[in-house]
Design a protein that fits this description.
This protein is an alpha/beta fold. Helix content is 43%, strand content 15%.
């Protein structure tokens, strides 16, 4: 990891001239403009932010970045408090696709469409992310810093030992659980999820093409929910309640206890940071349900401009600097998948993560889906889904009751 961080620093000079492009701030002639940006985990090990911001400042000497940092668990509360109190935040990261519509509803974010038009900014390299995740009532309030395709990581050693073929890019969820059952024995499980409902919800939603938690009938997900739980009961993956009680996380994949692990593409960086990983791993595209389109869940990290900023031009330069081509190269170098994509940028990612061709295919050209269209109620609906799914997975209600409760709770949420 130290070598990769040094490589990131080595990119500074190469990107300096590129970062310098774009519109200049109105106040630049009078001196340096300070842009305040809020985010979480700025200074954790492996963070790309310090290097990224230092490089931006180098290329834009008329802009100084002031970081407002918070721990990940406290970030959303701190951000909302600051924005509501009129704190002079100019640019901020939203924690997730579900929290993004909430800050838009509270009028904390500026519509970026006029700026995109004003500066003739090319948004095509962001692919479908903008329309799928960020458009709200015709407005566009964020650009993606990075994207996260949810994929399947697998332990090659466990498959070799069991004499089973490796997963492929066209694996179904049915095959995932069937294979997981064959790999499971003792305290090792062939299939695995991070033990939080939000990491299993995408599996259920993927069972119905075009499912939207804001409008679709939750009864449609009952068959998939039953299959997921049956696989758990049969030992393909660990009992959800047990995983939660033991606070299990991705370290169990690191330690060779999980054969296949469904997670976001950010996990690649975590794996490469492990110098003590005792096995080779591979990556394949997300499984899909038989009879449905081949697709995978995707999330992204939104970067927004405060609706009250008085430094619009400088804030725009910062957003497009870190979310555009130049910033994307440094994000890719840190082994994270950027929101802004091109062949060259993904080659940088491939070289940094040292992935083989098969694993790279898992992270590119994916057909993706989300929880549904961006809406101000998405966070509340997602929270309700997580609660009801956990109750189902811990044997406190049936799949049918879960669906019934979700349909009822949605009516109440949408009334407010």
């Amino acid at each position: 990891m130290k070598k990769n961080l040094l490589s990131v620093l080595a990119l500074f000079f190469a990107f300096s001239l590129l970062f310098a492009g774009g519109a200049k701030d109105e106040g630049a002639a009078q001196g340096v403009t300070t842009v305040r940006i809020a985010l979480w985990d700025y200074d954790v090990a492996g963070s790309v932010y310090p290097a990224l911001f230092a490089e931006f400042e180098k290329a834009n000497p008329d802009i100084k970045i002031e970081v407002v940092n918070a721990p990940a668990n406290d970030y959303e509360t701190k951000l909302t408090t600051m924005l509501a109190s009129g704190d002079s935040i100019d640019v901020f990261f939203a924690k997730s696709n579900t929290s993004y519509p909430t800050v838009v509803e509270m009028d904390f974010a500026k519509d970026l469409n006029p700026l995109i038009k004003k500066y003739n900014y090319d948004v095509k390299p962001y692919g479908t992310v903008l329309k799928q995740h960020y458009e709200i009532n015709g407005g566009l309030y964020a650009l993606p810093f990075r994207t996260n395709d949810w994929v399947l990581y697998y332990n090659k050693a466990m498959f070799d030992k069991a004499g089973l073929p490796y997963p492929t890019n066209d694996m179904t969820w049915e095959k995932f659980f069937e294979t997981g059952k064959k790999l499971s024995h003792g305290d090792e499980y062939g299939s695995a999820f991070y033990p939080k409902p939000g990491f299993i919800v995408p599996v259920l939603i993927g069972a119905v093409d075009g499912f939207d938690i804001s409008v679709s009938d939750f009864n449609l997900l009952v068959p998939a929910a039953k299959k997921v739980k049956a696989a758990m009961d049969e030992g393909a993956w660990e009992k959800f309640a047990e995983s939660v009680s033991l606070s299990k996380d991705q370290t169990f994949f690191f330690h060779g206890k999980w054969g296949m692990f469904y997670d976001g593409s950010w996990f690649t960086q975590m794996l490469e940071a492990r110098k003590d990983l005792g096995f080779k791993y591979g990556i394949v595209k997300s499984p899909y349900w038989a009879g449905t389109a081949k697709k995978g869940f995707a999330t992204s990290t939104p970067v927004l401009m405060s609706s009250t900023t008085k430094k619009e031009s400088a804030a725009w330069r910062l957003i497009t600097g870190i979310c555009g081509a130049e910033g994307a190269k440094m994000v890719a170098k840190s082994m994270l998948v950027p929101g802004y994509m091109s062949g060259d940028i993904m080659n940088t990612f491939k070289e940094s993560a040292k992935l083989d061709e098969s694993s790279m295919k898992a992270l590119t050209n994916n057909v993706s889906y989300g929880l549904g269209a961006a809406s101000v109620n998405l966070a509340k609906l997602s929270a309700a889904f997580n609660q009801e799914l956990e109750s189902f997975l811990t044997n406190n209600q049936s799949a049918e009751k879960m669906a019934e409760n979700l349909n009822k709770r949605r009516v109440e949420i949408l009334k407010k």
